[in-house]
Amino acid sequence: MLKGVETKSVSPVFVGRSTELDTLNTALARAVTEPQALLVGGEAGVGKTRLVEEFAAAARRRGAIVALGGCVEIGADGLPFAPFSTALRQLRRELPEQLAAAASGQEEELARLLPEIGTAAAREARRDEQGMARLFELTARLLERVAAERTVVLALEDLHWADASTRHLLAYLFRTLRTGRLVVLATYRSDDIHRRHPLRPLLAELDRLRAVQRVELGRFNRDEVHRQIAGILRREPDPDRVDDIFERSDGNAFFVEELAVAADEGCCTGLTDSLRDLLLVRVEALPESAQQVARIVAEGGSTVEDRLLAAVARLTEDDLIEALRAGVNASILTPAPDREGYRFRHSLVREAVSDDLLPGERSRLNRRYAEALEADPTLVPADERVTRLASYWYHAHDAAKALPAVLDASVEARRRHAYSEQLGLLERAMELWDAVPDAVRATLRPLDHAEVYPPCGCDPGTTPLQYLDLMAEAAVAGRLCGERERSMKITKRALRLLDEDPDPLRAAWFWVQRSRLTQALARGDGWAELGTARDLVRGLPPSEVHAEVLASAASWSMLHEPGPDAMAAAERAVEYARMVGAHDIELNARLTLGGLMVDAGDIEAGLAEMYEVKDRATELGVDTVVARAQVNLPSVLEGVGRSEEAARLLEEGVHVTRRLGLLDSEGWVWGNLAESLHSLGRWEEAARAAANARRLEQSAKQRAGGSMRLAYLAYDRGDTAEAARRLADARTVLGTHDPMPQYALPMKWVAVGIAAAEGRLPDARAEFLAALDTGLPPGTQRYGWPLLIAAATAEADAHGAPETGPGRPEILERIRAAARTLATGVPVWQAYDLWLRAELLRAEGRTAPDEWSAAVEAVEPLGRPYDLARVRFRLAEALLARGGGDDERARATELLRLVTAVADHLGAAPLARSAGLLAQRARLALAPAGRDRPPADPADALGLTSRERDVLRLVAAGHTNRRIAEELFISPKTASVHVSNILAKLGVSGRGEAAAVAHRLDLFAAGTGERVAAGD
Fold first, then answer.
1. Residue 207: partners with Cβ closer than 8 Å, 6 or more residues away
2. Are 369 and 360 in contact (CB under 8 A)?
3. I need a labelling partner for 205 at 20 to 30 A (CA). Which of 32, 569, 617, 761 fits?
4. pTM recorded for the entire structure
5. Cβ distance 545 to 529 under 8 Å?
6. Closest by alpha carbon to 815, among 764, 870, 872?
7. What is the tens place of the pLDDT at every residue in 828-870?
């Protein structure tokens, strides 16, 4: 409206800030190699915006794309993701083709931030447990792709006004951006961050990230104030005037401007020292019509569109233009940079003008805004319309109008995965509920405003919305945004209302939510709450609630008490879900059922069921089930000893969960991958996977799982102090409220090993007996066998020490009794059984080379090099202890060479040390034998099959897969599979490393390699 108006810039000179600007420019230069993150803080008016403007101009001169976004305040409500939406729109204008390519295939999700790239149908799409995490991950990847070849500066201002979703997204970007020429910059008012300000915890969290630089702007000194005034007045100021302004402003750049202009215009007489009066003095000098417009703009939000302003001001076009011209010329108002509208040049002035409004005046202005927006919804951007209308009606104190608008805004927040804002809006709706006439409430429908609560026998399209519907929606929103305490409070209140007016299905649904929250808040295992839900639905007709209760109970039992009861619950959950057409619940229950079938010994059928669910969920696009399958199926495969198959699925799972943006699931995938890589002897990769799991942790169980996997590695490498530290961290995080076997048993196993390694056999026994007292439920053999072996090893290692003799027979009998309860239905469990039998004989002082030979034979095909090295060491020890002839000494020597090669390769220091000491005591030479007596092929030390040994020889000779296929009369695809398996078993990432390992360990005679090479 005033594009031609010449505004008076009150600060044409950029003063000081050279150090801060250098910091920003240095970050811009470094962004060429890695993303940069900066936080700029300072009190209101100190010059944060001006610094960002100067930096942005410099960045543009150096060829960077700058996208600015400001956090929007509407009354007391922040628009969800507002600064990101604004910045992405600028990126779309500047780099339309690059952004379209970067968003390709993910428009449905990214439309929640940038609605114009999606469709209305897409924005209506799914809501699930990980929707926000998925959106965050896709946003990070979008920015990385857009900034792949050209530097992008993303500047977000006024973070102190940011909504919770914006804060969470910014923290996620700061933690996870890995590539791209990106500078992410955010500003905030440091003087606004009181003890309870929601930004305070985020700032504390970001302070712990080394990648985030903090820039704090201080006030100007007298010399800088002098230079600033000279720039404003365009002449040398009077020194006394400078002294007076410096004293009054205390060096605050904005106050310097206000005082300098006021003094220059003769408004300083009687000027009060009150901050508010200082900010209002030039507003009150405006014509009355301009003051009226300023009051309207102040109440409309951070920016008010010119058409909306015209509708609310109700002035003639000429009068409105003149009023705006006066405000702009006085540098009170300024045209908005990103839309046709106006905003205050400084937010401090807007706040002062808004605070000066009378209560009735504020309500009237908000009503006029709401009425204008209802009459013409095109007055504001479409993605802001419902949120702003809700805010206007709420602050107009019209409950009948506000409730429907607030509910519409809550639905929009839900669609955008802005669950924190959804929760706040639903709480506001519950506050308004009793003040709204029955006739208005009767027009509201659950179908429109509450999607999570099952119909419970009613038609959601015709039944009026109930207060309990709002409570259900709020409880889930609270759980999804991490506000579990608020969610629990709402859930308990709902259950109290249901005690007064019973409804079994609704009550059962809330008890399921309470179970989840109880577990998440570490206040119990949640079983009592699920038991109440089961009692409530017992005897009722099949329903979606009934199916969810059964599925939740089956999932709980699988993790806590696997067995026939758990399987029966899973089968009933599948049956009920099918009857009521609840496909998501059915697939989840079938996944649980498949895992329970494996635990019960029906291995192949259970795995087939899980594979089928994974494929079906992928086909139907049920992302949460896809993600759960990518976690649970490989975990089950690892449990039955199929580590290579598990690792392949998990590597696929990393890509799948990352593509879907399922951050929580990706963390679980990394954790399980660390376990499988450890089994396969790929320890360096396992450590990296465990570190990734910790980086992405979203819950206590994830953190504990990551800590335990790092504890395994530290223990096997001989760093008992680090193992103990990781174990203590896992125990602290998990507490004692929810003793799930998949965590409790491995923690006991590590604790037994650490205590034994440190010579504390009584402590090792106490840990073991505590585990037995808790029990080894059916289906826990994957955890039970290693625990029993650890306990038997501790007893065997201490055999012969007089002080450890008492109590040993009883311990060994407890071990044997426990072993009789564990299944041996797959090769890995059979191998563990034989290993344990041999270890128990060693604990009784018996040599038993035949038993150790059987254990070695059982472990060899498993592809677990460290386990194989351990049992080979014991076999060598037994052979030497028996005192046989030269043949047995030669065999022991060969075994110890293999053990040493694997231990050195893995970094398993205790095993390498033990092998060396045993060889030294027996006077065995472990160096490779001369050519006159070549040793047996040592490739089997790493669990290689005979065919894989042939392939490795050819790889070491430099052959391609096609050449290998021709030499061995196999297909190139089969050769590729063999090479992949070899790389996994050697713990290397490429063919060159595999060749290096083969030569370093002297796996093949030189002549063999030469003969193969000669055949090219």
1. 214
2. no
3. 32
4. 0.71
5. no
6. 764
7. 999 999 999 999 999 999 988 999 999 999 999 999 999 999 9
